[in-house]
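--- STAGE predict ---
source: upstream dedup step, 1 unique chain passed
mode: sequence only
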Amino acid sequence: MTDWFVSDFTLEQIKKLKAKQARSDRSDQFDGVFEIPTIDEIIALAKSKRTVNGNNVGLYPEMKHPYFHNQIGLAIEDALLAKLSEAKLDSYDSPVFVQCFEVAPLQYINSKSDVKLVQLISTYNVNADGTLDYNVPEGDFISYAAPFDFYANGDARTYEYFSTEEGMRFTATYADGIGPWKPFVISFTKDESGAISVLPKTDFIELAHKNDLQVHPYTFRNEDEKWSNGDAEAEYHLFFDAGVDGVFTDYTDEAVNAIKTWESTDKK
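--- STAGE serialize ---
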């Protein structure tokens, strides 16, 4: 893939940019209002706030394409570790999870720090029968279906490996959790008319918990109604009932409300 990347610019140049809503189905009222924050600014913001219950605000940074950045001399792993250490947020008890779709960067951080780590996994597509498709067409992004560092080093394992007993044991050697795309936990079928039917939960969470891995699926969006059929709260409850330990959402307030109603009504 060729394009402009962050590495092509100075911080001074990047600070001239303003955030813009990327989705056409969401409000653009904040376009041009906010600048792009640095990790220092994000850490400072989190430390200056508390949740409504008085708890610390957590951080969940993702290392994006470390293999690529290491190839051009930008070691994201070391830079992130330095920032977390400076902020005294590099212990296991810190309100921090570090996530990545690649494997080696997480293994590296695990050898240097006790901070909690999460292995992200994905798949290229969901077949009509609900099975997951890891076959990436030539010319498309291999990282949809396999860790890019695996691919670059000739390792043929896809993200399917991480959903198996063996793969979970492997992940547990360096990570504290696993972050799957939602169909790994609860998949869906699609008929010829495009109608969606949600399937029963898989054994993904049971396997993860058996290997002491937390499960944090992504991404809950009101606009994606495959699991919700228009009832976003019901979708959260569906995954809470399945046993997830956390969720990634674009609508945090609704997720928090869903936790409260689930705990008071549906929790078993």
